[in-house]
Amino acid sequence: MVNNLSLSNDRPIKILFLTAEPTDSAKLRLGRELEDIKERLRLANLQGMFVLEERRSARPQDISQAIHDFKPNIVHFSGHGESTGELCFENELGNTKPVTPEALAALFKLVTAHVNCVVLNACYSDIQALAIVEHIPFVIGMKRAIGDKAAIAFAVGFYKALGAKRSIEEAYEFGCVEIQLQGIPEESTPVLRKKQQRCLRQADATPAMFYLERPTIEKRCYEEIKQPGCLIRIKAPENMGKTWLMNRVVAYARGNGYKTVNLSFKGLVDGICSDEETFMRSLCVAVSDELELPNNLNQYWDNQATCIYNSTMYFQKYLLANSSPVVLALNDVDLVFEQPAIANNFCNMLRDWHDKARRGDKVSEIWQKLRLIIVHSTEVYASLDINNSPLANHPIHNNLNL
Questions:
Q1: Are residues 38 and 176 in the same domain?
Q2: Domain check: are 170 and 313 in the same one?
Q3: What is the DSSP string of 92-124?
Q4: Is 325 among the domain residues?
């Protein structure tokens, strides 16, 4: 079974269902979810094509043992998740025992031979999904808190479709639709992550196993991203986990109800062009797309004004005006630094956006909604005016050196 689950194989699809409901946490309807899944697979009328194994009140050590014993194709976890990304298993006394994304990612790295899909039906589990999908083809997580009814509806829809010989991607869509059909406004909470199939040079990769957990830095980022108008700069040499840390912060912000935009300049205008107007227009369009807003750029673009001014007005009057807080994460900003025709103006613009949030006027209220994350390597770019850009050592900057 590679890339997807197929019911055309002679072997049955094996599902490992893990639940944890610590005594010191809120009660969930995990038994109902499991029974509904069993019923949907039974109704699929595919005799012998599914085998379900369950482990209730799962402790961290039970996870690996169950995977060793059962060799599942799908691992499904139902329980609690914390906003910082940990999943809540149980300790020997039945109390909460959190397990980090790095720990589970390291485990799933070792079982890729048979595990093809992981379903994390727990609050804020998209942070875990981002870690695990480095190794497993399909991982489903929740990008914010999810209610009992929505969690059960998603599981029912997912396995109902899987039993009808649908693919993982289709089953995920049916799970989301099942939430809608039951009139629950949480259909956008589940998110499907798919492992990148392209081959990466080792020098370009930053997989989970290379990331050194830095709880102090992560906690600082989580606290800062909630501050109005904040700016976080993450800098480090290649392969030090910059992107991984950025993704953790973005997932945390999403889990706390913020809108998020995660852009890599590697894919913007073929890796950055030297024409400032084309670059800025492309950036505005990309942010609109990520926020799922119509492209209204022409309505706000004045050909008599500079492209920096036009871009600023597009954010101020359109993207931010009627929005909840927006986290704009810009990765691979090094590529901008390499274009002297646009670098200084672009950095000055970001600094101006950051300063607008601190002026204490009516416009500030709009710009306080924007929280910036800038990620780049530690090389020195002599052509940049460092003192007038977000790279300056401003007292309220969070400059994180990994």
A1: yes
A2: no
A3: TTSSEEEE-HHHHHHHHHTTTTT--EEEEESTT
A4: yes
Q: Residue type at 40?
A: R
User: CA 17, CA 308: separation in Å to the nearest integer?
Assistant: 52
Instruction: Please check whether residue 205 lies inside any domain of the structure.
Output: no
Residue at 117 is within a domain: yes
Residue 170's CB: how many other CB atoms inside 10 A? 15
Q: What is the mean pLDDT, run by run of 10 residues, along the chain of 402 residues?
A: 47 86 66 73 64 89 93 92 87 89 92 92 90 92 88 89 87 94 91 66 37 71 91 82 84 84 75 76 90 91 93 95 88 84 89 91 92 80 48 50 55
* Cα distance between residue 281 and residue 275, in whole Å: 10
Residues 328 and 356 occupy one common structural domain: yes
Question: Do 37 and 122 have their domain in common?
Answer: yes
Q: What does DSSP say about strands 398-401 and 259-264: parallel, antiparallel, or unpaired? A: unpaired
Do 184 and 252 fall into the same domain? no
CB-based contacts of 276, cutoff 8 Å, min separation 6: 307, 308, 341, 342, 345, 346
- Distance (Å) of CA 94 to CA 55, 100, 394: 14, 18, 47
Quote the pLDDT of residue 355.
92
Q: In what order do the strands lie in the sheet with 87-90?
A: 80-81, 87-90, 96-99
